[in-house]
């Protein structure tokens, strides 16, 4: 079917605007907008109609070729030019309205790039499907593709920002059914390292076990199991600096709540959700966090990164170095302890998911390696041991055995129960 034959079928369905006409042939040429393409096609139809009417006075032939002669009336401006397009329902006559709505929604946000998306209404989607089916158009562009592009041009001119297709800082969505605009603002991601200097603080927010965060007498209506976390101590200054709605905390693993995180600190990324400000003074942010969390948490090395760093952080298998304070149920000799430590150094550990975390992790046996163990201090009351091991090894269970779910283990090798009473993470190798 040639272009004019298809165009005649399009015209036959009802009054149609230049945009919607041209869009049916959008893939056949370049350098034209759809409305320019639509006007050209209508002109060609009018000229063909004029030729047929002059060459053949048989009204029957003319009617068969050009049903209702709608194309001629539309192009001559006699009685259909002002009729509303049945496909877009006049939407392409009101693009400025949508651009104004978008510009108003964007006001106040700091951004340099944006992209427009469209959520179609059921009626407009149905109209487009009917037109494609009835006309047999095979070179058409989707309705929302043209709308995104044309409204995007108008918004760019109004706000003096650039359209970006791959990673826009703000996605503007036109909801045609609700006749409103919504914004999806790309998060700001800040990477750094933190040290946790006190025990009893979890890494992330921990909802109250009883009320699940709703608030109850047990948690003093805070909704929290613990009053603060590393997450919250870092987040509050960032929320203020970025004027963000919230934050999300992403750590390279986590230490137990009763453990310290020392040495060079644990890598993390803090995500500012729906930020109004994107330009952040990282030196001031570092100071604000460290001053606000004085004696509890310290951060350093803050820098802005892309979202993919979070995935890298989450999936990396970082080696860890721990300092352990270990006590024993019965007295043992230093020689026996050193012998057990030598056995564990370089050993492959078969560790079934610990009982204390099996409720939230798959009950599997995982193989992890101890790179090195060293006895730092030995007294009648305790021993200080440094463990350098593969990421993912639960070192408390390496010491006490966890009912033989971790094999080999220190308790088994020395013949008496050993328990970790203090644990400090002193290095995370990433």
Query: From the helix content, strand content and strand pairing, which structural class follows?
Result: alpha+beta
Low-confidence stretches: 74-80
Supply the number of helical segments. Answer: 14
CATH topology term of the largest domain: Alpha-Beta Plaits
**Can you identify the CATH class of the largest domain?**
Alpha Beta
What characteristic shape results from the CA principal axes?
elongated
For the terminal residues, how far apart are their CA atoms? 62 Å
What is the strand content?
Answer: 25-35%
Summed over residues and divided by their number, the pLDDT gives a mean of 91
CATH architecture of the largest domain: 2-Layer Sandwich
Largest sheet: 10 strands, mixed
Indicate the percent of residues in helices.
Answer: 25-40%
Order of helices and strands: HHHHHHEHHEEEEHEEHEHEHEEEHEHE
Summarize the structure in words.
The chain is an alpha+beta fold. The chain has 4 domains: 3-76, no CATH class; 91-185, 2-Layer Sandwich (VC0802-like), CATH 3.30.2130.30; 188-315, Alpha-Beta Plaits (2-Layer Sandwich); 319-429, Alpha-Beta Plaits. The protein contains 14 helices and 14 strands. The chain has helices spanning 3-12, 18-23, 34-55, 59-65, 70-76, 95-106, 122-135, 143-159, 230-242, 282-292, 308-315, 334-344, 395-400, 410-414, and strands at 113-119, 162-163, 170-175, 180-185, 188-196, 246-251, 259-273, 297-305, 319-328, 348-352, 365-378, 383-389, 406-407, 418-429. Strands 5, 6, 7, 8, 9, 10, 11, 12, 13 and 14 form a 10-stranded mixed beta sheet that branches. A 4-stranded mixed beta sheet has the order 2-1-3-4. The longest helix has 22 residues, at 34-55. The relative contact order is 0.09. The model is unreliable at 74-80 (pLDDT under 50).
